[in-house]
Amino acid sequence: MEAAGRLFFAPGFARVSMDDLARELGMSKKTIYRHFPDKRSLLAAVLDRQFAAVERTLEAAAHDTEGQPFGVQVQRFLIAAGSELERFGAAQLATGRGDAMLRQYVEQRVDTVIYRRFDELLQDGHRRGLLAAPPELLSEITRGALERLFTSQLPRELDWTAADLLRATVDIVLYGAIRSAQPDVDEEQLRAAVPTARDDEQEVGP
After folding, report:
1. pLDDT recorded at residue 65
2. Measured CA distances, 193 to 30, 53, 97, 137, 199 (Å)
3. Average pLDDT for residues 144-169, to the nearest whole number?
4. Which region, left, alpha or beta, applies to residue 26 given φ > 0 means left and ψ of -120 to 50 means alpha?
5. Cα 161 to Cα 93: distance, rounded to the nearest angstrom
6. At what angle do helices 70-88 and 39-64 cross, to 10 degrees?
7. Each residue's pLDDT tens digit, 160-192
């Protein structure tokens, strides 16, 4: 399992064959096939093992931030989740070319292990009156940002580590990107300055 993980999570995993794995382990393919009928079943077992490690990481992050401000809890969760996803390339496995059933499997596991937990965290913040936007909207924005980040060339272009870029992305999602030039402007003033959909309808209506 460890040898398969090293090979499958390396660049070009789609080209890794059972022959490659047998050579890595110094054993015959026949021995491997006694336990796994094909490459897909072996990779699924490797992913199950990896997602179990992701769950342990997220549980540790939740435990470490228990009792801390909600923003800290969200930030630590996303950084932990993103770091784990990046480490074994879940986004590439889910969106890249290759076995369609495998992509679907990865997507389902990411939904269950990571995004369902994240949705529960946001719903808790919503119940406590700590969110300024619907939790469903925040979930979609965050998910899109994380998954786009994993396939982006920005770390290379900006000369940042992926962890640096992830941390910046999380901070932007949580706190916004625009710093007010007028410290005395409060949220009530901002809401008054930004027209709502109802305001627009009143302006263009008869």
Report:
1. 93
2. 70, 47, 46, 22, 11
3. 76
4. left
5. 21
6. 160
7. 876 677 778 778 877 776 765 555 545 554 344
